[in-house]
Design goal:
The structure is a single chain. With 102 residues, the chain is mostly beta strands. The chain has one domain (8-15, 23-100): Immunoglobulin-like (Sandwich). 0% of the residues lie in helices and 52% in strands. The chain has strands at residues 8-9, 11-15, 26-29, 36-41, 48-53, 59-65, 70-74, 81-89, 92-100. The strands form two sheets. A five-stranded antiparallel beta sheet has the order 2-9-8-5-6, with no helix packed on it. Strands 1-3-4-7 form a four-stranded antiparallel beta sheet, with no helix packed on it. It starts with 7 loop residues before the first strand and ends with a strand.
């Protein structure tokens, strides 16, 4: 069982050809979350586009972050349930599951 303070490593799904694969390009925590998550990126060469999808694959939100930065994302308006986070950087496409608990 995971505690709410654990950092979740995001799986790299589709690396860009010719680019080096980094062990840890994006992390999302806490997971499960309630009112906010922190998204941290280490890709210093390109911005990150973050998309949050609900369990029906409907796009809920799109956020663009600057290079190599940490951002707090407000999730208070998301209902309890399972969501998927898709993060696209210059190094690849990363997808992880996010659980919202109230």
């Amino acid at each position: 069982m995971q505690s709410g303070n654990e950092e979740i490593l995001v799986s790299q799904i589709y690396p860009n050809p010719g680019k080096g694969i980094e062990e840890k390009m994006i992390s999302v925590y806490p997971n499960p979350a309630s009112d906010r998550i922190t998204v941290k990126t280490w890709d210093e060469n390109s911005p990150t586009t973050l998309k949050i999808y609900d369990n029906m694959s409907q796009l809920i939100r799109t956020i663009i972050f600057s290079n190599g930065s940490e951002h707090v994302v407000d999730t208070h308006d998301l209902r309890t349930g399972i969501y998927f986070i898709e993060a696209s950087t210059g190094s690849g496409l990363y997808i992880t599951k996010l659980v919202i608990n109230r």
